[in-house]
Design brief:
This protein has about 425 residues and is of the alpha+beta class. The protein folds into three domains: about 230 residues, Rossmann fold, CATH 3.40.50; about 45 residues; about 130 residues, no CATH class. It is about 20% helix and about 25% strand. The protein has a six-stranded mixed β-sheet with strand order 7-8-9-3-10-11, with helices on both faces. Strand 5 and strand 6 form a beta hairpin. Helix 4 runs parallel beside helix 5. The two termini are about 45 Å apart.
Amino acid sequence: MTCRAVPFRCTARLSFGDFTLDARIDAPLSGTTALFGPSGGGKSTLLRIIAGLESRAEGKVTFDGATWADSASGAFLPAHKRPVGYVFQDGRLFTHLTVAQNLRYADRRSRHRARGAIELATVIDRLSLTPLLPRRPDTLSGGERQRVALARTLLTRPALLLLDEPLSALDRGRKADILPYLRDLPGSFGIPTLYVSHAVEEIAQLAETVIVLADGRVRGIGPVADMLERIDLQPVTGRFEAGALLEARVVAQDDAWRLTRLDLEGQSLAMPMLTALALGESVRLRVRARDVTLATRRPEGISTRNILDGSGEDIGDQHPQYPRRNRRQHHGRTGHRLCRSHRGTGYPAPARAHHARGGGRTRPDPGVAGSCPRQERQLRPARDRGRLEHPERYEDRSGCSIFLFWRVFRVGQ
């Protein structure tokens, strides 16, 4: 089932003490749109305004041509009349009812709404709930409770689904169990979804579009791949989290080595085995710039598992907040941006490195591509001790390999 793009516009202003949310969004909603940013940035508050749970908010909310709120004209559609499904962090199931009774309760109350083909049996099947139907919520694991809460919300047959950090209380294993269900939601039921999270790994797996929200302001809106590449958003997205998203296809499950083998536009990749992936299935990979090492020719005799051919497209600055004249004070930090080449592969292109004058040393940040955490690198300059115009002339004397090839490059040619 396809999820059509639904026009959505929201201007919202609401103050709580010293904090003020002042957000403006004008973007169609299709598939999963992430509200992403650090804790305390106003994401959940904005979701509550959209749902009609904050009547004090100023501004205007329109969805698919219908006005839900307009403080200028005094219009306000109460929460129970908005075609919105809301999943909270804690599920909020009826503890005195079984799973089946929780689901039937929502199904009966929304039978008059004819929105798509959302049927009780379909929801139970898509979310694998059959074994859970006779159980009560207090006997379920955290992941199982969230699946039931999601199913109950779907059975209200909403036009818009709001998910407020539904995985925040789950450990890594439980998150991995429920992520596939969340990823398939738009395609299975055709409902646009606003998904709140501050976890980059969730956004990378689920979202098509990202709205970055911090300190009550919208910092950017765009496709997920573009937003996660932007190094100017690192104060929000996280330091050293810039990277590329790649779409690969599963071609084999290697039981002997416990690896899942992938095809990326004719190039081979291997990753730790995920048995839930079927042959031919598409999988989204996130490659951080900090995890990539560059080379001008194909390496041999190394333990690196994945080697891709690609070309550098852009040069970005890892630390735009530092004025250029003061960069020497930050230990010659080297910035890398992971770019998507025309062949679909990802490589980081370094920004600028400044050699610390006087001592002839630089200390790359922990996690920068090719560096070793907490290990100081000594680079011996061939001539200039200022900016590294030709890093290939510098020697690495630390005993670890580090590649800082500067110009636009094409690996393997």
